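Q: Sequence in, structure out?
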Amino acid sequence: MSDRIVHLVDDDEAIRRSAGFMLKTSGYKVSAYPSGVELLKEGKDLPPGCILLDVRMPEMDGLQVQEALKERGIGHPVIVMTGHGDVTVAVQAMKAGAVDFIEKPFEKAVLLSAIEEGFSRIEHAGRSRARAEEAQVRLQALTPRERDVLEGLVRGYPNKTIAYDLDISPRTVEIHRANLMSKLGVASLSEALRIAFAAGLDEASSS
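A: Exactly. Output:
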């Protein structure tokens, strides 16, 4: 757990100290920031980890910081800290993609549970990204025509429809289909489709 970093953003030094202590004694690394502006200065260089973000801060509030992170393509999981009466704002933050919100003063167990959920999202996203990258590499082995046929299969079209759309014979579609399955190293249509979906081919073919 020692390589798991929590970016703690709060203008209240007492909160930075107490929450930072809780996290460090639970095995996390902590980078503390007195404002969202300071956090955003890191930009894309912000080390991977979770962001523990206070809602009420001067200069930029938590929602504005969250929006700025999104605009800059910084997809770190965000857990929002809120004072009493800020729950409506916290719900807004969750609608904007925050993992969770915790109310101050918070129990250690509540804080750690929220942080763990954030890191769980990172791990799942990492696995999905690795699968997508592997699938995209495998699709690169296909010829443009084989890729066209696979896109037709992704849409759920039978060979005859694919043949009509591509202005080739159904027999040629069968040959391309057999070749693409061989290149992808799969024995069934469902396996081929799984690779296509992982690579995002369904989104590309529907756009």
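The chain has a mean pLDDT of 89.
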